[in-house]
Specification:
alpha+beta, 4 helices, 26 strands, elongated
Length: 433
């Protein structure tokens, strides 16, 4: 029995099954559906032509040059590490040989004094002669060892393989915080611990009163040292220096990744600092004051001030820059209006500090606590809203993409490998992404 056309208000007999909608249609509606499909080819053709134009204009040599520059930088960093280790080991062996040499000189001097004493007294015993003979023989063996110190050096070959440098097949994907799962691991912190945290691709640095703690991606504590200074206002990682940077009040410290040894950065003018962030070439600090300034420091060859941005470029007279984060040529600023108790996030060009966009957030600032954000993938941002226990996901163009209620009070957040680290009111939460 023939089917009727499935199109709305069509009484014609169906002539065939439509491939796109899987319905029985008459000849007219089959032609209409076919025309609709063909019309969709036009924009696809445009896209193909656009891709062709992109390929034609692609500067292959420039892409290769950028790859080689990155490889050259890796090569130079490896050479620097080997050179530093070489210098360190040279100093250790210099000290070792000199100490051993001094010891033998002292022993020889003691033997000579003993010999002089026996000769002057014109009296000795067989036991004295035997003891002197044994001492001279031992001294001779010790000097032999000094002469053969080089043969005691054991140097293992530097193991190189293709996994040291590789190319990722994938690009960064947008982080979907809708799928932010339950807490994977927690780290409790004693009262008096500061909320700041920082990470690189291997380690997470936090404060656990009274210590600075360095943790790996399994949350094992690798190293701890006492923190004996003022409050920690912020911390960040410098890939150029290969060191963490911590600011506290007027103080700026660089912290060794492996040993947590700290160096105090001396600057000509003391300032109260609020927040810090690093690019490949510069350290940026915001001042802890109304009409905050942003001070740029060069990183190499030593940390020195090179520029300062002030009101009205940075913020308004009654505003404070609460947090500052660098990502890919841009600075994200968290700006609080003390009078209105409001908060906005601003994206600025790192070279000029010209605003790219500004977004007022629906947050009322009732506490004297700094607001912070962190950089996500794909040039997006995450704001920690401790006032109402939320995480605000901000898009590349400054729109609020998602509001995520949070079970604890989130003061700071940071990406750490494939995890999101959230510094809460009494510890640290880790979520796998």
């Amino acid at each position: 029995m023939p089917h009727q056309c499935a199109a709305h208000k069509c009484n014609r007999i169906a002539r065939g099954l439509c491939d796109c909608c899987q319905q029985n249609l008459c000849l007219q509606h089959l032609n209409e559906h076919n025309a609709s499909l063909i019309s969709q080819l036009n924009p696809l053709t445009d896209e193909i032509n656009t891709l062709g134009d992109r390929l034609k204009s692609l500067n292959v040599q420039q892409i290769i040059e950028k790859c080689r520059q990155k490889l050259q930088k890796w090569r130079e960093e490896c050479h620097e590490k080997i050179d530093r280790l070489f210098v360190q080991k040279c100093q250790e062996y210099d000290q070792f040989v000199n100490e051993k040499n001094s010891e033998q000189h002292e022993k020889l001097s003691q033997i000579q004094s003993k010999m002089t004493e026996f000769i002057s007294a014109q009296e000795t015993t067989r036991r004295d002669i035997d003891q002197l003979t044994l001492t001279i023989r031992q001294l001779n063996r010790d000097i032999d060892k000094i002469e053969q110190t080089h043969s005691m050096i054991i140097s293992r070959p530097c193991l190189l393989n293709d996994t040291l440098v590789f190319t990722k097949d994938t690009v960064d994907h947008e982080i979907d915080l809708d799928t932010l799962g339950s807490v994977w691991k927690t780290i409790d912190r004693p009262d008096g611990s500061y909320a700041s945290l920082a990470s690189n691709d291997r380690y997470l640095l936090i404060h656990q009163q009274p210590n600075l703690s360095l943790l790996d991606q399994e949350m094992n504590i690798i190293k701890q040292i006492p923190w004996c200074h003022d409050a920690i206002y912020d911390m960040c990682w410098s890939s150029t220096l290969k060191r963490f940077i911590i600011i506290g009040g007027k103080l700026i410290f660089t912290v060794n990744e492996s040993t947590l040894s700290m160096d105090n950065v001396k600057i000509s003018k003391e300032r109260y600092w609020q927040s810090c962030t690093c690019s490949d070439t510069s350290l940026f600090l915001s001042t802890n004051e109304y009409t905050s300034s942003i001070v740029e420091f060069r990183l190499l060859p030593s940390i020195k001030i090179i520029k300062e941005w002030k009101y009205p470029v940075t913020c308004a007279q009654n505003e404070v820059i609460s947090g500052i984060v660098y990502n890919d040529g841009k600075l994200a600023l968290m700006i609080m209006n003390e009078a209105k108790k409001t908060l906005r996030i601003v994206l600025s060009d790192v070279k000029t500090l010209n605003f790219i966009w500004s977004r007022q957030l629906d947050i009322i600032c009732t506490q004297s606590i700094a607001f912070r954000c962190c950089a996500l993938t794909c040039h997006e941002w995450l704001v920690s809203d401790f006032e109402t226990r939320r995480l605000l996901h901000i898009t590349e163009d400054g729109k609020v993409k998602k509001i995520i209620p949070y079970s604890a009070i989130p003061y700071r957040a940071n990406l750490f490998g494939n995890m999101l680290v959230v510094s809460r009111n009494d510890g640290v939460n880790l979520h796998k992404l």
